[in-house]
Amino acid sequence: MSVPTSARRLVAGLCTGALLVPLVVIGGPAAQAAAPVTVAPSSPLVTAAEGDVATVALTATTGDGTALAAPVTVFWSTGTGTASGGADYTETGGVVTFPAGATSGSTQEVGVEIAADDDAETTETVPLTFSTTTADATVTGGATVAVLANGFPYLDATLPVDERVDDLLGRMTLAEKAGQMTQAERANVAGSPGRVASLGLGSVLSGGGSTPTPNTPAGWADMVDGFQTQSLSTRLSIPLLYGVDAVHGHNNLVGATVFPHNIGLGAMRDPGLVERAAHITAAETRTTGPQWSFAPCICVARDLRWGRTYESFGEDPALVVLNETAIDGLQGPARSEVDRPDRVLASVKHFAGDGDTTFGTGSGDYTIDQGVTITSREDFERIDLVPYVPAVRDHRAGTVMPSFSSVDWTEDGIGNPVKMHAQTELVTGWLKGEQEFDGFVISDWEAIKQLPGDYAAQVRASVNAGVDMFMEPNSPDPFVATLMGEVRAGRVPVARVDDAVRRILRQKVELGLFEHPYTDRAGQGSIGSAEHRAVAREAVVKSQVLLRNSGGALPLAKDARIYLAGRAADNIGIQAGGWTVTWQGQPVKDLIPGTTIRAGIGQVAPDAQVTFSEDASAPTDGSDVGVVVVGETPYAEGFGDVDGPGWPWDPSDGGVPREPGKQLTLTPADQAVVDTVCGAIDTCVVLVVAGRPNVVADPDGQVDALVASWLPGSEGAGVADVLFGDAPFTGRLGMTWPRTPEQEPINVGDADYDPELPFGWGLRTDSARERLTDLARELASSRDRDVRRALAEIATAVQQGGWTGSGGAADERTVLRALGRAVDRLAGGDGLTWQQMDTLISVLRDAAQQRVVEAGDDAPPGWAADLADAEHALLVGEYARAAHLLLGVAGHR
Fold first, then answer.
1. Fewer beta carbons within 10 Å, N or C terminal of the chain?
2. Is there a catalytic annotation at residue 838?
3. What pTM was estimated for this model as a whole?
4. Marked catalytic residue, from 50, 311, 510, 637
């Protein structure tokens, strides 16, 4: 029989036939004090496989926390359960004694030998009872050993996945199937964990900010394993799947590495680094228990007024697709790797159109979130469905989460929207049918309750539309009962339920949960490690977008006299944003471990003389440069909608709504700090720490350098790295930067496209010549004919460009024409990776942007549209078109 190693509860040094585990007293003798003593099992339920020794720990505590004043003797024995004494386990009992002087909280263990045989058996139980005759001592509660189901084909790891799933499904009752389709919230079952077993729950989740006490790696693992024990104690020992919103790191856990939000990752144009960040997130998450992350969001954000904009990689579906390497980072590049202890199941979301809803159609007080996507089927497929094709076909995402939003097809007239949780055409027809998605569909938080009708109608509509598991955080019991009622009434086909459960079970088998249901804690020491934080810092560096740099204001001198101001300069809660420790995040300075931007400046430029004044009230005299760090107060989902409601319910809010009626402009207080500092100091740098572009008023041109810093997470030193030139600015906008808020929505490809800065904009501070030289070195060994010809053109550009010491080209015409020819040589082949083509074309972009900057109001007509269209062309592999457009803006077509 196959025995799950991680499910064993081995007792070190326990000899065959032994009934009692020797005492291990934690702590030395303490001062004795007469106090009542309570002895109780540390856990009322333990699991064991056949052939194991089941161990139950007893803990002795005193009422006042002092050491035991006298010995406490506890009698214990096995009782009568569903397992057969003698045949299934050794009937036994004994005595354990906690000696006088043992510290409060000392433990002892008792063991029960579980027999092994070749029979296939469902889960059986062995109860244990405890008592004492010691004066002033009380024993509370008993314990149950659940002997795991064993011997069935579905437990045989050598069999094919589908064969195991079919075997298990064929043994399940309707109640067990309904339970597998149900997901409850941690808080709903924490007080009565036995409901995990009685309902046969398929999954439990932690919503944003729903954490164990203590909020530590061990606390998380203990919690998840406790729920897992309940799940394994059910008739068929089907393991539990635990989900969390690990959307920019394991962000619910204090001490985890917190990465930039997706809007920053998208600005990097570095899919390899996105994958590495996701892999670290997976590793830090799974080693604390959860095996499933509700990430990544592959939404296409088309309106900056949406409060979830920062969860998107960008406004162009092609940019989203580029960064779907996040799925590989979570699950592993090969789908077979998802069972490793450093991988988790991914959930691509929110299917589909969540970022394309119309302003004014939002749900409740939300102005756009959970609203209606009003579109044609053709445009919906071109914009909103495109990311899901590679997500499920190439990256093999294990789960898909539908959106709260609705879709209203223009072909049949506007006014009859259908919620995505009831969209049979898209969930069953397009996703599961046309795209052959073989994972499962998980509903969003109580999303089915937004459907029309009573609860039975909501359940029926969503199950029949193709949703497989239901996030009913606070109502798992009525969901199970309602689903069973709908099946028995014939309104939900048994075949639909079987399909849903088969999909869920397949993911559990592939995750290796039947073999290794409990948490592998070996990786906990790497959580928030220097190595992991270095990757996050690299991501911060590459995500910074230099929007303006008049007079070469950046990089700063490391011995400069700096006047640092702004509420985001020294507040790690603001720079981490929403979905950090709590759902909405909190503007709390010490919310998580990490480095603020101010602290990062101190690390990177220790010789700089920094005057810090958050509100710019301190004198500015004698400063060489002002650095103002402003941005947005943390928010999540509809509470970040423009003109939306304010969140008042985190501890730091004190019941006061947090900036209701948000706008795409700086707050008056932030704008006042910018005006004060930039009006007083000749050189002024403004950093915008925000989840989307914000309009910064600068009518007098006093802001010399403007940086989009996004929401960098825990590693603010990465911002300092680029400010002082330790690393270059290389990031590019994944979202169009509007001139005014009234321009929204404005996106690449629009017919009337005239923003402040276009999609793809980003000034660089590295050497173009070095980029080309490094690229030529990478390609030197290629035997591809087109690559060799392109190398000759690159050599012409490098050798004849008349390059200056700063890496610019004096003979720009020669350089750009040579590089244009190089792109033409390569455009039709696959001799270069996308990243290498991006490097080559970046030099053309530099020249185009430089011409726009130098021309000011006299920039070429349509330049913004041309630059944005060039970025889109690059992303979709139309390299020659991208080069053509950039050369045109640069004046060298």
1. C
2. no
3. 0.95
4. 637
